[in-house]
Amino acid sequence: MPAGSIDPAPLLRDASALLESAGIDSPLLEAELLLEHVSGVPRLRRRIGDSHPLPAEQAEEFREWVRQRCLRIPLQHLLGTTDFLDLRLRVTRDVLVPRPETEQLALAARERLPARHGIRIADLGTGSGCLALALAHGRPDLEVHAIDLSPAALGVARNNAVRLGLGDRVQFHSMDAFGPESPLETLGRFDLIVTNPPYIPSADILELMPEVKDHDPLLALDGGPDGMAPYRVLAQRAQEWLQPQGWLLAEFGDGQAGALVELFRAHGWSEISIGKDLSGRDRFLIVRASRPENPATHLGASREDVPHRSHHG
What are the beta bridge partners of residue 172? Predict the structure, then answer.
């Protein structure tokens, strides 16, 4: 081993033990990802026996990253990126870190896109741009609009669009899509709206894991006293924003399915269904705007599984 270099194997063992003691769920994996980030050597190469030594300065940098992760700074913030379907996105404290469940939401939206050209899509509360960019990436013919109240979040989303070569395929708008006076109708009607709105009840936010409550933006978490505030706006207003029989797909929190079904049924939505996430929990509201000739017609709720896909961190 070259002078001044350090064997990474004991470093990884020590880092994994520290992360485990700090309450990290996958300590060895996260230690490997941090080491890969610092050294540039893929973690799978090390797993098959490539014990490429670390210069002393890289070893110290690695130890510092581990110390920060032990403080429960999100891994994605330390790495600066996260994977979402087949895209690699930059993430900062200004946006919610995309979860595997939201990948399923994107796949469910893709399934419901009409085949014809000129389809208009809106992503409400775009954050990192994960949903808007995943849809734009999969269908070059789509007209995609990404909406967020936060200028900082829109900056992250725009940056991701440019990095991915999608800068001219997505239009960005700064507006409050979930406020009672939402001006979304000024953008015209859409064929599909997809959203991961804030749905955590205000009083529950302090009970969330540190990576979320201390590092994700409050604007992306707080859904009001019962977590339902954005959905009330969507139930009342979103049929005005959609073409007749257009789709609305929204992620929601634990225990909200029944109230959402009743809410959207009361506002005359049709084809109301609930999709489950990979763990089998009710997670996605999938509803359709009523036909214009009979807007009061609606169907009872059904349940369906959205497409399953394993998440690779």
Answer: 146
Architecture label for domain 81-305: 3-Layer(aba) Sandwich (3.40)
Paired strand residues for 249: 194, 286
Bridge partners for 274 per DSSP: 285, 303
For 12-62, the pLDDT digits (tens) are 999 999 999 999 999 999 999 999 999 888 876 666 566 678 899 999 999
Please state, in angstroms and rounded to a whole number, the distance separating the CA atoms of residues 154 and 181: 20
pLDDT tens string 106-160:
999 999 999 899 999 999 999 999 999 999 998 999 999 999 999 999 999 999 9
pLDDT at 294 over 80: no
Say if residues 276 and 283 touch (Cβ distance below 8 Å).
Answer: yes
Cα–Cα nearest to 34, from 68, 6, 83, 84: 68
**Spans of all domains in the chain:** 5-71, 81-305
Position 42 scores a pLDDT of 83
| 3-state class (DSSP) for residue 67 | helix
